[in-house]
Amino acid sequence: MPRLLPVAALALALGLLALAATARAEERAVPVAVAEHGFAPAEVEAVAGERLRLEVTNRTAAAIEFESFELNRERVVPPGQTVAVYVSGLSPGRYEFFDDFHQERRGALVVK
Amino acid sequence: MIETLLIMWRESLEAALIVGVLLTYLARSGERAGMRYVWAGALGAVLAALAVGVASNGAAARLGPDAQEVLQAGVLLLAVGVLSWMVVWMHRNARQLGGDLRRRADRALATGRLVGLAAVAFAAVFREGVEAVLFLWGVVVQRADASPAALLAAGVAGAGLAAATAWLFFRGFAFLDLQTFFRVTGVLLLLVAAGLLTAAVNKLIGLGYLSPIEPQVWNSAWLLRDDSLLGALLNALVGYRSRPSLLEVLAVGLYLPAMGWALHRADVATRGSARRRPARSAA
Min CA distance, A45 vs chain B (Å)? Predict the structure, then answer.
């Protein structure tokens, strides 16, 4: 398969680049909890370009789905558990997130 | 109760649409027997999702949420891999000529192709299946006032509605002539695979294993919102996102042309050798 070989090589290089980029970055933990009434805190802040580790804790009795179109993330969190959702290199702005299973719960990440 | 039904409908629709593409394709190819593979993949995924859902829930959670997400990414990548291997294999072997070899290659080709499609069905159903199991479990736990049976029934009804929706959607395809139909479903299948690849890459970025390189290459929400009907449909079927990362875009940008080319070459070669061979009864 001579012609797919350069494609495979390119894909490999791409993968390695993406992997390497994470190794050097320093990350900051941002705790975000989900309670019955909503996100706590409802707004979290960050500085542009940071590598963030959103620590989403589910403090309700049912599963939640942390989702955000702006952040391009979705993650189910079983009750009582905490998951780490990584986001990095964001430009200043307001990035909204919500619980897809209970859409009245909404919050935002404000990047300055 | 209605909420449970609606959410299950939404969650299941994605899997239902993908399985629908596969089944429609096989039905129109006259390969009704092959549809069993897709059903097997889907059913296997339901059982696997139940197992994983149970293992990751409750106080005795044996599978941490991160491990589960890695598993999901792995399943998706495996499906893309199997499907791609199948396409490449078809490309390489379509040019074989000669009696026995041809027939053996045909059979292996046919089986290999069906395994590839079953893998896609498995990945699509598994991904949504685990979410659905966790969601329903949570609903049953949370709604102490309603009976678990009623809630589960609402959930199953939601999934059933999704299947019906997908069926209706693909009935529309029946009006296309054969050639157009295969061209459309061929492209659709390729886009589905690309969607699974995007999802896998997205999960690995969210887990912190890969860097997005640039988190938002463009924002197409002005054109098509993620939460609009069409946006949700395209998200379900081909992994549309209004704000993709550079890594996701590059992954698809590499994958689609490569697979599209391989598929095209397989088509061309198959048609060419079919013309050269004397007419045989259909396999």
Answer: 17
Chain B neighbors of A83, CB-CB under 8 A: 65-66, 69
Tens-digit pLDDT profile for residues B54-101: 887 765 567 777 888 898 899 999 888 888 877 776 666 655 534 455
Strands A82-88 and A106-111: unpaired
Using the Cβ of A5 and the Cβ atoms of chain B, whether some distance falls under 8 Å is answered with no
Q: Find where tokens 């002539």 sit.
A: B177
Q: Are B240 and B234 in contact (CB under 8 A)?
A: yes
User: pLDDT digit string (tens) for B225-245?
Assistant: 998 888 988 888 888 999 999
- Do A65 and A79 touch, CB atoms closer than 8 A? no
Which of A80, A83, A90 is opposite residue B215, by nearest beta carbon?
Answer: A90
Comparing CB atoms, the residue among A4, A73, A82 nearest residue B262 is A4
Asked if A85's CB is within 8 angstroms of B139's CB, the reply is no
**Cβ contact, residue pair A89, B215, below 8 Å:** yes
Q: CB distance A14–B254 less than 8 Å? A: yes
Tokens of B190: 């390729």
Q: Which residue of B has its CA nearest to A24?
A: B211
ipTM of the prediction: 0.90
Cα atoms in the Cβ-side hemisphere of radius 13 Å centred on B59: 1
Of B65, B138, B247, the CB nearest to A62: B138
How far apart, in whole angstroms, are the C-alpha atoms of residue B114 and residue B31? 10
How does pLDDT run across B91-143, given as a tens digit for each residue? 666 555 344 555 665 666 677 778 888 998 999 999 889 889 888 888 887 77
Residue A85 half-sphere exposure toward CB, CA atoms < 13 A: 23
Full DSSP string of B225-261? -TTSHHHHHHHHHH---SS--HHHHHHHHHHHHHHHH
Closest CA to B172 of B233, B258, B248, B103: B233
Longest Cα–Cα distance in chain A:
58
